[in-house]
Design goal:
227 residues; alpha/beta; Rossmann fold; OB fold (Dihydrolipoamide Acetyltransferase, E2P); five-stranded parallel beta sheet; five-stranded antiparallel beta sheet; 6 helices; 26% helix; 30% strand; DNA binding; LytTR family transcriptional regulator
């Protein structure tokens, strides 16, 4: 899901098609408020918010840099034909700005590279429990029958009362499934033994065995140096 603020442009449509081909974008006419934007992002599991700064810069400027609040805000991109406006937008917390010199392919590549390393907040909801966690705080998720255990880098384990599938479909691309019941965060992957299908995560003493059916799925795994 993509939230677009302002009229979409040709380059915007190319960007949308590149990473969200199966989900139509959600269009919003203006910024409204960061609280509203955060709620929309949470409701629609948005990976990205795109703001047309040429149409909505005044709204952005009026709201000011309110990014210190612990809101669920995904990767936020501004698009503008005015370079000075683009630089100013960084003061309000935008993660990237695309200008007139960026062709569609460069925009897509830059987005894909950024989203793989982005440590924005992830939202988990389980009954009355609502969690906001950064992606680099999560080592892996493991299914436990019809519930899910969330293993953090701090050593804490948090039980969630929904299936792994219900959470995995909204995780960033750094999270890959290596078993039917296991999704790991490849940001912490440091070694792979392909012959025995073993892999290790930084900060976790255990060894993970990835299933043959998922050998081609975790594309980041095969790029790691073998142990």
């Amino acid at each position: 899901m993509v939230i677009i603020i302002g009229r979409p442009t040709a380059i915007l449509n190319r960007l949308i098609a590149a990473f969200a081909p199966s989900r139509p974008p959600l269009y919003m006419s203006d910024v409204q408020s960061w609280v509203t934007l955060a709620e929309q992002a949470r409701t629609y599991h948005a990976l990205c918010v795109i703001i047309n700064l040429d149409l909505n810069f005044a709204d952005l400027e009026a709201l000011g840099p309110a990014w210190a609040q612990p809101l669920l805000l995904p990767y936020i991109i501004g698009m503008t034909n005015d370079i000075s406006r683009g630089f100013t937008a960084f003061k309000y917390g935008l993660h990237d700005v695309y200008g007139p010199g960026d062709c569609a392919i460069h925009v897509v590549k830059r987005y894909q590279q950024a989203i793989r390393s982005f440590n924005g907040y992830l939202y988990f909801e389980s009954g009355k429990k609502k969690l906001y966690l950064k992606s680099n705080e999560i080592l892996f998720l493991k299914a436990d029958n019809y519930t899910t255990d969330l293993f953090l880098t701090s050593g804490q384990t948090i039980p969630l009362f929904n299936t792994l599938k219900s959470y995995a479909q909204y995780l960033p691309s750094t999270f890959v499934r290596i078993q039917k019941s296991l999704v790991i965060n490849t940001q912490f992957l440091y070694a792979v033994e392909s012959t025995k299908r073993k892999c290790w995560l930084i900060g976790y003493a255990g060894v993970f065995i990835y299933s043959p059916i998922y050998i081609k799925n975790p594309t980041l795994l095969v790029r790691q140096p073998e142990n």
